[in-house]
Hints:
binds pyridoxal-5'-phosphate; Aspartate Aminotransferase, domain 1
Amino acid sequence: MVYTLTTVSIYDQFGIRAIINAKGSSTRVSGGFLAPDVTAAMTEAGQYCFDMAELQARASTVIAEVTGAEAGCVTSGAAAGLLLGTAACVAGLDPGKMGRLPDTRGMKNEVIMVRSQRNFYDHAVRATGVKIVEVGLPDRYAGAGVRDAEAWEIAEAITPNTAAIFYVANGNARPPLPEVINVARKAAVPVLVDAAAQLPPVSNLKRFINEGADLVAFSGGKAIGGPQGSGILSGKHDLIMSAILQNLDLDIDWDLWTPPPFFIDKARLKGLPQHGIGRTCKVGKETIIGLLVALRQFAGETDTARQARFRATTNKLHAATGSLRHATVTVQDGTTPRMVLTVQPSAPATAREICLALQTGNPPIQADPSRVDQGQIGFNPTCLRPEDPERIARRLRELLG
Ligand SMILES: *Cc1c(COP(=O)(O)O)cnc(C)c1O
């Protein structure tokens, strides 16, 4: 089997070619694919209508169970979670402030961030109208240096205008999150964690909340295997309530507004907020249901089982590729065991040229080019379909003999 019926019919209708995704769940290659249960749940959800506040309230209960947080909501991606989370830290439960964002005059409007953690996704934080206050110098970069930002530097940057500390979780992130939480707690400033791509291990669903983070954003379209445009924001009840109020359609009559009080407590509000800044990142019902099904499946599989699944795919690819005249192929172990192809100097093309040939050939194959400058091409197994290893191997043999 080369193409499933579905692929053929999409191709016929729109002239769109499916690619082989050996890059992994990156957004530009459309994430991964949905498990049949997730697709079925989304199709079913599309056949009914729901009250969106009730749907998100149920989602909150499921997310709370899985993450150990007080509450949560489904977002249209981790980046959307960062925007909503920041907006929640700035506006709290004040409907007036919610309505004025991104004009943050007269509000706490500074977000502290370690300089070495600045990245392209922090646009989502800045979009709310806050100013990022950078802390620390990543002197590890110099080679001789060993230091990065330290907790005392974050403490020193906190002012009465500090809305939040934004932390981007990663194996190399400095200072360690518990040290950041410690200074944040002393100053009663919330900590928002970007944990978009920190899964697996499954234990990370709970880890940052356990360490004391106030809000944690995960991507739903990466390892969780949810819809590509989905994510989770989990955390403290009041902050999630603020986030969801700034996300939902609130064009409602106050007396006719009956959200579940455990999720949105009307008694805490002096009035009904207008459509908020997060209305821009609307989440559909199919997305909410699909994400919840995927999340339960992800949390229900052990890391060992998942790793074994990925290793089997990688081994299959490695075996099918065999030995190539102009490159060596090895299996690199880790959370996601992957195949690494190292192009020999004798090869007719550089690693970058081979990536381009893979990408523009038939079938189009997207591999991981992050180490092409070192002559290496990575093949990530997480988004490969059962027939893909054989198809990739055939193309590699064509290109590299
Ligand atoms: C992928 C990623 C995001 C964005 O996640 P989406 O779900 O695509 O919005 C944000 N931050 C980091 C560190 C990421 O890796």
